[in-house]
Amino acid sequence: MVLSDGNARRRIALLLAAVALLSPLATGVAAAQSVQTPSASVVVDEGETVDSVETAAATIVVRGTVEGDVSGAAGSIRIAETGRVGGNVDSAAGTVSIDGTVAGDVEVGAGAFELTETGRIDGSLDVGAGSITVDGAVGGDVRAAGESVVLGPNAVVDGEFRYDAEEFTRSSSASVAGGVVEDPSLGGDGGPGIGGGGSFLPSWVGTAYGVAVNLALGAVLLLVFPRFSRSVGDRVGSDTFVSGGVGLLALVVTPLALLLVAITIVGIPLALVGFAVYGVAIWVGSVYGQYAVGSWVLDRLGSPNRWLALFLGVVALALIGLLPWVGGLAELLVLLLGLGSLALALNDRYRGRDSGAASDQEAVAAD
């Protein structure tokens, strides 16, 4: 699935958060000098020291000392009050909470970010999140882009505080040496850790690119697999709730299963391949979902046409996706429908069942 706006990192982070909340996984304790293997949960206990943490996990908790960087993706990341990171924190997560000390820079994309009153970042802070709270100390500059940004009463920022938010709250007790600047360009610069600086292209360019790429993929699917594509589209209309439920199950359970596989050394290569296939499946499922919506509309109008259905579905979702909140919800629903219908159609093919769709020649001739 191609995301064309600056919210891509946030959506991925929210998905990881959902995975973490739904995973009944046991907690593992970091025992090696450098944690790099994907795991259900990584914990650096108080009194323990590791070189670095570079992994994908449901949760990452640092109560001890990480001499180097903390990087990767997780459902939640917490630097406890007793925790210390000697390097940088560069991660994507559902929630990020810093109660301890980070000697370097912090660059994160998250659903929610909080620097508490006991937390300290010696370097700079660059964060994109749904909600952002800065109530601790930052030795450098702060760049914060989110729907809600709070500068708390215990905040001490030695540099400049630059933000972009729908709702901004600043306590009168907060101290910012370099001043507070509202910068709307932060919301469209691709997020922290991607290139830095402002946006060099207007936002519609990204949207147009996403439409073009999705149309290209959809055209390939319709040309190469006309019969299968027709069956996927028809299933969304006939088994809407079943398709959506299966899509939600596939979206959540698949990464959990791959994380479990990755716990073992032997399973890491398989998990990496699995995550790659999972990413492609999400994109294909999203495009099929858009095609199915367009097909459903044209069927109701009595003018079925697979090419027009693809164009209508992709363009309509791109336009709806520009709307705050509603756009994200629509994209998620279409993804669930398409992914679920794709999974069910593949299952039927695997079991040798014909969905009742026309032959490839008939599917092409119908248009």
UniProtKB/TrEMBL annotation:
It comes from the Archaea. The keyword Membrane applies. Signal peptide: none annotated. Residues 207-342 form the DUF8173 domain. Keywords: Membrane, Transmembrane, Transmembrane helix. The keyword Membrane applies. This is DUF8173 domain-containing protein. It comes from Halorubrum distributum JCM 9100.
